[in-house]
Design goal:
Oligomer: single chain
Number of strands: 0
Distance between the termini: 97 Å
Structural class: mainly alpha
Radius of gyration: 31 Å
Order of helices and strands: HHHHH
Number of helices: 5
Strand content: under 5%
Shape: flat
Largest sheet: none
Helix content: over 70%
Length: 139
């Protein structure tokens, strides 16, 4: 009797194959759950970073960034009369935030090589500082 029940369970009609994956996806292959895990998206992100930093540095070098902020400051005086000081201050602050964001973007590393050089420079400066402090303290 136990053998018959066991046989019904093993060979029963309730046998079916289940798959808890993504429809149409090959078995045994993982889908990148995060863009950072995908090699192509990482490459696109690096290229985008390179372009943004290059553009920010060009704007700073050409003086475009400074000129835009200067223009916003002169516009502030007119907006203060026309829109009121509160709204004019909001507009000026947006221009200031844009300028600061572009300056900070220009200070970022364009690629891994530049990041490594920046890190080495900071490390070298720290070593020089320690050397000078020990020299002053000792001598």
């Amino acid at each position: 009797m136990i053998d018959e029940d066991l046989e019904k369970v093993i060979i029963g009609e309730d046998y079916f194959l289940e798959h808890f994956g993504v429809a149409g996806m090959k078995w045994g292959q993982r889908r990148a759950q995060n863009r950072a895990l995908n090699r192509a998206s990482r490459q696109r992100d690096r290229e985008k970073q390179f372009k943004e930093v290059t553009k920010a540095r060009q704007n700073i070098k050409s003086g475009k960034n400074k000129a835009e902020f200067k223009k916003a400051k002169s516009q502030f005086k007119q907006d203060k009369v026309n829109l009121g000081s509160r709204e004019a201050r909001k507009i000026l602050n947006k221009a200031k935030e844009k300028r600061v964001a572009e300056i900070s973007k220009s200070n970022e590393a364009k690629n891994r090589k530049e990041a490594a050089l920046m890190l080495a420079a900071v490390g070298g400066l720290a070593l020089i500082r320690v050397g000078l402090q020990s020299r002053v303290a000792g001598g």
